[in-house]
Design goal:
With 473 residues, this protein is of the alpha/beta class. Helices cover 45% and strands 11% of the residues. α11 runs parallel beside α12, α16 (377-392) packs antiparallel against α17 and α18 packs across α20 (460-472). The longest helix has 22 residues, at 427-448.
Length: 473
């Protein structure tokens, strides 16, 4: 028997691309820079009191004095100003990634997100708004604390206690601007430890009874949510107050200790039974395959992660899916085809009556030395070959749920287009960042006992080029 929620998103996903194309005309009829995510989506980083609408704009600070109104967690003065710019047809500078994509003739995340049901349902009210109103978001991501057992190469002490511990002992990395310097993470940049009172977490729980009825998507990130007591407070609340239209989502590294894993999996089994939620989406962060994935996300046990993905899909057989979040950086390229092949294998094993295995390929923007745009054009050619292979493995009526979807291929195509724009960057900028790449990962190898050359032998020529620029700087 197929439970309610098992077909969730399939009709929508199959027309995802056409929806994004049609919403472009609708948005442009009001303003060529309008993005509904500025109103209906929020990412909250409560350990530091930071906020953005999606992952593209820089995080901005939530003034603690504004929290007498808990809705100010989302409706900051800064965000209201950006909304007003959009309504007047101006392009907020913080949304430059989408403008770059659109100027290249591509659909951007502005179109994709605005076309999703949780945003598009409020199109008329947003189009007729002043931009100064307090809005209850329908898509909320929240990071309650920064406790994490990994030290991912592109992360920072703001989002990982393990990173904070390392730099407090060993100091900053020796890049041109010292990276993750302990003295940088002071004031509002200092993550508030779990043992201390956090006014942002307190405000969130004050806002929660007003927020919860309006939610369509609620996603917990980290840090590592499996290690956070607030995760289980949310789970308990949902179990006591079922919301059959809720998409409940959690992002994890799937590499925690066994006791934490079993506790977490047991909760998700309860949530996916009956009518507690519409659907549970398990996001799993992994950017490559095998040893290369472990290098990028230090502390990750790739084999354990893959085993737990299989456990999750086997032991919780309905009302849920897994989405791999593949943060596209310059260390992802050489083993990405192996990861995509692994995802196809999971689809063939577990996706029968609905799609249970998804993936997304957002691009990494910072730190800049880990950007795709620094790589030689031959690496973009390599991704083009992968994209062509995806086309040959495209989903058809006969291979439903088992192939690649049109919008997955479109997103990789978008990533490649952004990557190729690196050929237009100033050569001095590229050389400085290549130097920083070498400086960072040389220190990474020294501190953490890793070996870049052994792990990425295909990148030897580029590594030597980065070394040359580092020695010239």
């Amino acid at each position: 028997m197929v439970n309610k929620g098992d077909e969730v998103g399939e009709d929508f996903k199959s027309k995802f691309l056409s929806d994004a194309e049609s919403i472009r005309e609708k948005l442009d009829s009001i303003s060529p820079s309008l993005c509904l995510a500025k109103w209906k989506q929020v990412s909250l980083h409560l350990p530091t009191g930071l906020n953005n609408s999606c992952y593209h704009p820089p995080l901005h600070h939530i003034p603690v004095e504004s929290l007498t109104n808990p809705a100010a967690l989302h409706n900051t003065a800064h965000k209201k100003q950006q909304r007003q710019l959009m309504l007047s047809g101006q392009r907020p500078a913080e949304c430059s990634y989408c403008w770059t994509m659109e100027d290249a003739g591509k659909l951007s995340d502005r179109h994709y997100r605005s076309g999703e049901p949780w945003a598009s349902v409020d199109f008329e009210s947003i189009a007729n708004s002043s931009g100064d109103e307090d809005v209850v978001p329908s898509y909320v991501e929240v990071n309650f604390n920064h406790v994490c057992n990994l030290r991912c190469s592109y992360c920072s002490p703001q989002f990982s206690s393990s990173w904070a511990d390392e730099v407090s002992r060993l100091g900053a990395y020796p890049t041109r601007v010292p990276h993750n310097a302990p003295e940088h993470f002071v004031g509002h940049r200092r993550p508030i430890p779990v043992r201390e009172h956090n006014p942002y977490v307190e405000a969130f729980w004050s806002w929660w009874p007003r927020l919860y009825p309006e939610l369509q998507h609620f996603r917990m990130t980290g840090g590592e949510p499996m290690l956070d007591r607030n995760t289980y407070r949310v789970f308990d609340y949902v179990l006591e107050n079922p919301k059959p239209d809720l998409h409940l989502n959690v992002t994890s590294n799937f590499s925690v200790d066994e006791k934490s894993w079993q506790r977490y999996k047991g909760y998700v089994q309860q949530l996916c039974a009956g009518e507690h939620v519409e659907h549970f989406m398990q996001y799993v962060s992994v950017d490559s395959w095998g040893a290369q994935a472990e290098y990028i996300r230090h502390g990750l046990d790739f084999d354990l992660l893959w085993d737990r993905v299989n456990q999750f899909l086997t032991d919780i057989p309905s009302r849920n899916s897994v989405t791999f979040i593949i943060t596209m950086n310059n260390l992802s390229v050489t083993a990405l085809e192996n990861l995509f092949a692994g995802i196809l294998g999971l689809r063939q094993t577990y996706s029968h009556t609905y799609q249970r295995v998804w993936f997304d390929t957002p691009v990494l923007r910072t730190p800049t030395w880990q950007s795709l745009q620094l790589l030689p054009e031959s690496y973009a050619d390599r991704l083009e070959h992968l994209w062509a292979w995806m086309i040959r493995q495209a989903e058809t009526p006969e291979t439903r749920f088992h192939g690649f979807k049109d919008y997955e291929m479109a997103r990789l195509d978008r990533d490649i287009a952004w990557m190729r724009q690196g050929q237009q960057l100033d050569s001095k900028y590229i050389q400085q960042n290549q130097a920083d790449f070498y400086k960072f990962f040389s220190e990474h190898d020294r501190r953490r006992g890793t070996d870049f050359v052994k792990t990425f032998p295909e990148m030897m020529d580029w590594w030597r080029q980065c070394e040359y620029h580092a020695r010239q700087s």
